[in-house]
Amino acid sequence: MSDRVSVAKTCKLFIGGKFPRSESGRVYPVQDGKGAFLANVAHASRKDVRDAVSAARKAFPGWSGATAYNRGQVLYRVAELLEGRRDQFAAEVAAAEGIAARRAQSLVDASIDRWVYYAGWTDKIASVLGAANPVAGPYFSFTVPEPTGVVGVLAPQRSSLLGLVSVLAPVLAAGCTAVVVSSARRPLPAVCLAEVLATSDVPGGVANVLTGRATELGPWLASHGDVDALDPTGATVEARAELAREAAGNIKRVLTVPAEEPDWTARGDLARLRRYLEAKTVWHPMGL
Amino acid sequence: MALFEYAPAPESREVANLKPSYRPLINGEFVDGTGAPLETINPATEEVLAEVSTAGPSDVDNAVRAARRAFDKVWGPMPGTERAKYLFRIARLIQERSRELAVLETLDNGKPIRESRDADLPVVAAHFFYHAGWADKLDYAGFGPDPKPLGVAGAIIPWNFPLLMLAWKVAPALATGNTVVLKPAETTPLTALVFGEICQQAGLPPGVVNILPGAGDVGGEIVRHGGVDKIAFTGSTEVGKLIQREVAGTPKRLTLELGGKAANIVFDDAPLEEAVEGIVNGIFFNQGQVCCAGSRLLVQESIVDDLLDRLRRRIARLRLGDPLDKNTDIGAINSAAQLARIRELADTGDAAGARRWTSPCALPGRGFFFAPTVFSGVEQSMRIAREEIFGPVLSVLTFRTPDEAVAKANNTPYGLSAGVWTEKGSRALAIAGALRAGTVWANTFNRFDPTAPFGGYQESGFGREGGRTGLEAYLNV
Fold first, then answer.
1. Given A87, B15, B290, B343, which residue has the most CB atoms within 10 angstroms?
2. Residue in B closest to A136 by C-alpha
3. What is the pLDDT of residue A124?
4. Residue A1 has what pLDDT?
5. Average pLDDT, stretch A153-168?
6. What's the pLDDT score for residue A288?
7. Residues B472, B455 contacting (CB under 8 angstroms)
8. Can you tell me the distance from the alpha carbon of A216 to that of A181, in angstroms, rounded to the nearest whole number?
9. Alpha helices, DSSP H, located in chain A
10. Is A128 in Cβ contact with B467 (below 8 Å)?
11. CA-to-CA distance for B238 and B222, rounded, in angstroms?
């Protein structure tokens, strides 16, 4: 092997399609499963949360207004680019989670497949969840699911990539925009995923990825008046009650999540999509 | 044109079978509650209608235990085919007793008999009939095979549509296999308690439906009770937030149907005669005490004068008075407290510089009445444009472009309903798509049907009532 010195990456946040450092200037060191130093990552602050929410709100009309077909293609494109960086992600996941290469590889494969799964949902949601309502009168009444808005996601603490993808992809497939706080101790796969998102036709601001601590950033997301829904998966069980109380301030939709991180290798489902959708019923008279 | 004189055509109050006192229904029996009794009054006359025994904390506990037993032993294990038949029975009993219930509703609530008879009661019966059919078809509801009920559902409902809001909660809860502890509103408990009789007549097993009259404290007891698995609340956003906070960190499921400040958008190509009828229906139906009332009228600038002229002429012909008179369009405000709130908010419109127009109709000498009122020259920053008045007060704003209309319509933390009036189909659909609201009425307003999901975006709440979608609120899915 050569003695070439590798080029280390500066790990930054992903907000509005750009890669800023934390406004706070803070970083924290990340270790691998054996305690060896991997990198310093940006330690996002309240201001970063607010910037990310603002970017997500700005991106919402475009993303929610895009055709379902278009959203499906964009999410499929994420899978394509992830596939191209399969080995890199396997190495990242193995280092972050301290697991064997083969195991990491299978988690990356499942992550890629999860994007494909949700990509395929985008143009089926309305036909599965919507309806033509047989109302008792001369009206055409129909119900369509529409995206809820900006979703705050506290990503799983353990499953650094598959868990992250499993909670993020349904948000985007539903047509919502996301502010994600990565796993605190295993953030590097999230940093790499942000790079994939940045280069895969996902419009800037649709998915924003913050590295930092859910315990610190969760309350800012939960109490933010411009966040419409919250996935508290990455918060501790004790913290979730307080987050849910904060979330009541603007009637946020708060996901009911299991106390322990679930087995993310189980396949995705419609239930997660449903949480991020609002039913809209439209009426119009019929007559000559 | 002169106003036609109508001879009074009052519905007979005898039909209501009003009793001197009413009691809570717990475990299939009407029992004395341990709370302080309340007197419910007729808001049109301020006369006491009946004394109502209310629930205390021990009654809430007994009701929840009865509901739990009924869920575990009877209602939960019962096949959907059998549950369905109870619901069909209830629907039929409501139809049979609909005149009685309509008159009682009008006496207790103050709404015109024309509305309780032609709107509330038919939709109440329809809700039970519709959900009855779901009870043995839940496998097809789209939530996977054999979806399970949650258990004991606590339902807390408002005074504006007492029996209809009961139906919106009780019918889906029972159809999906849950049992119910229901708290009707403090000022309108009577039809709910007659509904308790109907449950008895239907032979509904004891404890499946329990009805606890009382004030907010009884609702609080239900919300906090550890034996309740689900809370369904309809009421103000303010109380909804308190309930969401209370339920936070518990395994209880929650659905909220809260306030609104609906925009009703009229474009210059709208069919104006129909639009006027729709605007009037949108804001004066049930004296405007409707969470989805079209209380913000957004009119394209070029037609505002014409539309306001037509609107005032039409509103001046609305008949305000005795709710039991079949000619009455506008009945009584439900309570003195609500009337005071309407007056206070309307006064802020004057203070902020909006122009008030009031229908020249005469107000009865007693009872809680508020004449139909239209404010023009309203700006978005005014309280009458932002806050839910829950009364017969319309705020009129203008816009120039469709984009401006949508921006103004969506400029609210609420998102329950909206209206759009235009002859152009493509525009109606585009605007309906752009409005952030759970129901959009295009060239109509205030239409409801058990097959059509209803509920809010944003701070108007979450969860839906009605349709296949509405079943989710009572299923563990």
1. B290
2. B449
3. 98
4. 55
5. 98
6. 87
7. no
8. 10
9. 46-65, 68-84, 86-97, 101-119, 125-129, 162-173, 188-198, 214-223, 237-247, 270-274
10. no
11. 18
> In the numeric block, which tokens belong to residue B404?
């401006």
CB nearest B453 (choices: A241, A248, A281): A281
* Mean of pLDDT values over A41-66: 98
Residue B3 has what pLDDT? 60
Whole-angstrom distance, CA of residue B241 vs CA of residue A251: 6
* Max Cα-Cα span within chain A: 83
Q: Which residues contact B96 (CB under 8 A, 6 or more apart)?
A: none
Asked whether the predicted pLDDT for residue B6 surpasses 90, the reply is: no
Q: What single letter denotes the amino acid at residue B321?
A: G
Contacts of A253 in chain B (CB under 8 A): 462
Given a contact cutoff of 8 angstroms between Cβ atoms, the answer to whether B26 and B210 are in contact is yes
Question: Quick one: tokens of B304?
Answer: 């505002």
Contact A137/B469, CB-based, under 8 Å? no
Q: What is the DSSP letter of A14?
A: B
As a 3-state breakdown, chain B gives helix, strand, coil percent values, each rounded to 5, of 45, 15, 40
Taking residues A223-230, report their average pLDDT. Answer: 98
What is chain B's mean pLDDT, rounded? 97
Interface predicted TM-score of the whole assembly (ipTM), two decimals: 0.97
Helix, strand, coil shares, percent, chain A, to 5? 45, 20, 40
Query: What pTM value is reported for the model?
Result: 0.97
- Tens of pLDDT, residue by residue over A261-282, are 999 999 889 999 999 999 999 9
Residues 435-474 of B with CB under 8 A from A: 437-444, 447, 449, 451-455, 457-462, 464, 467-469, 472
Which pLDDT tens digit goes with each residue over B274-293?
999 999 999 999 999 999 99
Q: Which ranges of B234-303 would DSSP assign to H, the alpha helix? A: 237-247, 272-284
